[in-house]
Amino acid sequence: MKSPRRTFIHLAAGAAVLPAIARTSWAQAYPSRPVRIVVGFPAGGATDIQGRLMGEWLTERLGQQFIVENKPGASGNIGTELVAKSPADGYTLLQVVTPHAINAALYSNLSFDFMRDIAPVICAARLAYVVVINPSVPAKTLPEFIAYARANPGKINYGSAGQGTPQNIACELFKMMTGVNLVHVPYKGGAPAVADLISGHVQVIFAPISESIQQIKAGKLRPLAVTTAARLDVMPDVPSVSEFVPGYEASGFAGIGVPKNTPTEIITLLNKELNAGLADSKIKTRIVELGGTVLGGTPAEFGAILSEATEKWAKVIKFAGIKAE
To answer: Dihedral through CA 146, CA 150, CA 152, CA 157, nearest 10?
Structure first.
């Protein structure tokens, strides 16, 4: 399998043999009609919001509508398959998020290969999760929670948005690195999991910031740590897990991809315009509010992030024996 970096270099080399005038005309003509951004998750969630942020910016910059099309199901695989089998002409984009890296190891019978069939355009942001507990749990810090969990093996339930979701994988990595025995309670989505955490049916969740920040502010949930390597601007007083569990890191990501063999000129144009958008103060503020850290960069850099995440989560899936639902 070619790495994303090698694939990108191959695309660039192929494009170099085209007449310069033809390539320039092609780039200037794109986009000449509306473009869809496929989001493999329901409307209203963090992934959908991020996709719409990018779509609105591209619409403003490129003069054509970039329309989000939600295709939820199978942890994003339905939307990914649609994009992978779409024409490589720049008119179908994919909102790429953490589950895409997880699914590569979680599902063995997919009709596509994500790393082969989707070319990276840009990683817009790193995304954090926050370890939140019900206030009834007798722990005010992460070390206290770890001690409490070790004293009560198999008696503490953790919720997630479902088997194989980032919340599930992040907590399984935590279990692997700390040796605690927490019982997984999967839900059909993050919202019902958070609701049951508030009511005390589960005791802890590794929750997306966007799904828990309001409950934290209201005092309904107690934050113990964030899963990124460093603290977040949106929650500066909340430490990172790595401050107590050296080497722990479970951040997600959000970016844009396109079908393989999409012309390099189109990928370059989209990358340039999206990097400009990520420098815009309004977009940066919104990403921070969603618990993200703005990244940007080149397609090759996003390819490296995807490769690293795919390898990392495959190890956790194997260790924990996680199976797709």
So the answer is: 50
The answer to whether the CB of 171 falls within 8 A of the CB of 313 is no
Tens digits of residue pLDDT in 125-157 = 999 999 999 999 999 999 999 999 999 999 999
Which of 287, 257, 238 is closest to 120 using CA atoms? 257
* Angle at alpha carbon of residue 29, lines to 25 and 31, rounded to 5°: 150
Start-to-end Cα distance in the chain: 27
Spell out the alpha helix ranges (H) of 166-298.
166-178, 190-199, 209-217, 264-278, 281-289
* pTM for this model (two decimals): 0.85
Q: Which of 96, 144, 89, 131 is nearest to 259 (CA)?
A: 89
CA atoms of 128 and 249, how far apart (whole Å): 9
Give the residue from 15, 1, 61, 6 showing the smallest Cα distance to 262. 15
> E-assigned strands of 7-65?
35-39
**pLDDT digit string, tens, across residues 217-250:** 999 999 999 999 999 988 999 999 999 999 999 9
Rounded Cα gap, residues 29 and 266, in angstroms: 10
Token pair, residue 257, equals 């991809």
